[in-house]
């Protein structure tokens, strides 16, 4: 598949892949101060290298952030309405492409979360990885845990940092921990106990942290990026120094994303207008050559030793090496988001401030090196 470019007539900075879908779907939110904002849906026809598109109305306000629920057809938007930041949960309707003549749709249901009593500056609303009814909203220097089990979402827990600056965002680390960014560092709260910090990296970067991601396949592993143009990967059990660090962007890095299927592949995007595909095989869940072993029943058998040596040599030659694999430079403005597809491990989407959306595929040579 060649790259597919889709143009939005308005500025945009939010992008997310629909996590619960079998189709290749991405949602992009517009950011207009004056006017009716929209959420564009792109569905990729991989066989024919084409897009099917729909537009959803988002009259609530200009969209700063979109997230997707991994267990249901739900989105969460963070938006500005009359200079007030709010967050809403949006229900994606069924049979979106049933009537080709209808270009603009409405969400099946919209619930605006009640956040005003708790603060003003909302950064993100994140769905729990396994429980559809649990949400976490980052607001000011707080994390609010919402329960959607009732007819109206209610705050059931709150984590507050009284002595730090406002949080810049956050993500679930596992079912019980939520990681937040604050100034140059990151820290994780145990949501089962009020204000209990499970771990912290106070100076993860020398400048503010812009984004983080949690490795879905390897426990205790997170990635951070920031204004210092650096990608870092951390083992939170021993977080004095990163286990992986690269400075390949030329300006601020806005987003980082682990590939959910092959976590040695990492996407980053930034204000230099580039999307970088980086390999971090040395600290991924994929089997490392240096620690690889085979089950050989008879260790004294010379034939088996020869087979093992040949196997190690072939694997070492084919294994991807750490570093930048590919630079994607189809954008002409700051790239605020680059997201892997949830349904296909080799496809990703990127969105720049000027409204250009690019759907790309990982070059086959890397795919074959991983699979063969």
Question: Can you tell me about this structure?
Answer:
- The chain has 372 residues and is mainly beta.
- 7% of the residues lie in helices and 47% in strands.
- It is built from 2 helices and 29 strands.
- It has helices at 302-318, 364-371; strands at residues 4-7, 12-17, 25-30, 37-45, 50-58, 62-68, 74-81, 84-91, 104-105, 109-112, 122-127, 134-139, 142-147, 154-160, 167-172, 177-182, 185-190, 196-201, 209-214, 221-226, 231-235, 244-246, 253-258, 265-270, 275-279, 323-328, 335-340, 347-352, 356-361.
- Strands 2-3-4-5-9 form a 5-stranded mixed sheet, with no helix packed on it. The protein has a 4-stranded antiparallel sheet with strand order 1-29-28-27, with no helix packed on it. Strands 6-7-8-10 form a 4-stranded antiparallel sheet, with no helix packed on it.
- β19 and β20 (221-226) form a beta hairpin.
- The longest helix is centred in the last third of the chain and has 17 residues, at 302-318.
- The protein is globular and about 65 Å long.
- The two termini are 20 Å apart.
Structural class: mainly beta
Shape: globular
Largest sheet: 5 strands, mixed
Radius of gyration: 21 Å
**Oligomer classification:** single chain
Low-confidence parts, pLDDT < 50 over ≥5 residues? 289-299, 313-317
């Amino acid at each position: 598949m060649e790259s597919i470019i889709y143009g939005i007539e308005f500025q945009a900075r939010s992008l997310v892949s629909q996590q619960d879908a079998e189709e290749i779907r991405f949602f992009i939110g517009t950011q207009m101060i004056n006017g009716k904002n929209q959420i564009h849906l792109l569905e990729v026809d991989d066989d024919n290298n084409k897009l099917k598109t729909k537009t959803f109305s988002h009259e609530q306000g200009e969209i700063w952030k979109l997230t997707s629920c991994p267990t249901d057809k739900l989105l969460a938007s963070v938006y500005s309405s009359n200079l007030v930041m709010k967050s809403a949960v949006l229900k994606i309707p069924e049979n979106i492409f049933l009537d080709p003549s209808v270009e603009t749709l409405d969400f099946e249901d919209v619930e605006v979360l009640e956040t005003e009593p708790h603060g003003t500056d909302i950064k993100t609303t994140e769905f729990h990885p396994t429980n559809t009814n649990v949400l976490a909203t980052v607001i000011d220097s707080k994390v609010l845990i919402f329960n959607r089990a009732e007819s109206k979402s209610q705050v059931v827990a709150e984590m507050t940092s009284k002595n730090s600056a406002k949080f810049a965002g956050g993500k679930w680390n596992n079912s019980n921990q939520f990681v937040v960014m604050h100034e140059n560092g990151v820290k994780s709260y145990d949501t089962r106990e009020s204000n209990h910090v499970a771990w912290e990296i106070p100076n993860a970067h020398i400048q503010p942290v812009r984004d983080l991601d949690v490795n879905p396949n390897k426990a205790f592993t997170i990635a951070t990026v920031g204004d210092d143009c650096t990608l870092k990967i951390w083992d939170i059990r021993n977080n004095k120094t990163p286990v992986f660090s690269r400075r390949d962007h030329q300006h601020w890095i806005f987003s980082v994303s682990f590939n959910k299927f092959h976590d040695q592949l990492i996407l980053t995007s930034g204000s230099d207008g580039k999307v970088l595909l980086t390999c971090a095989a040395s600290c991924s869940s994929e089997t490392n050559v240096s620690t690889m072993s085979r089950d050989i029943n008879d260790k004294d058998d010379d034939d088996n030793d020869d087979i093992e040596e040949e196997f190690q040599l072939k694997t070492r030659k084919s294994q991807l090496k750490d570093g930048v694999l590919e630079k994607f430079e189809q954008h002409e403005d700051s790239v605020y988001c680059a997201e892997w597809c949830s349904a296909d491990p080799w496809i990703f989407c990127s969105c720049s401030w000027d409204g250009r959306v690019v759907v790309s595929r990982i070059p086959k040579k890397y795919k074959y090196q991983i699979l063969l």
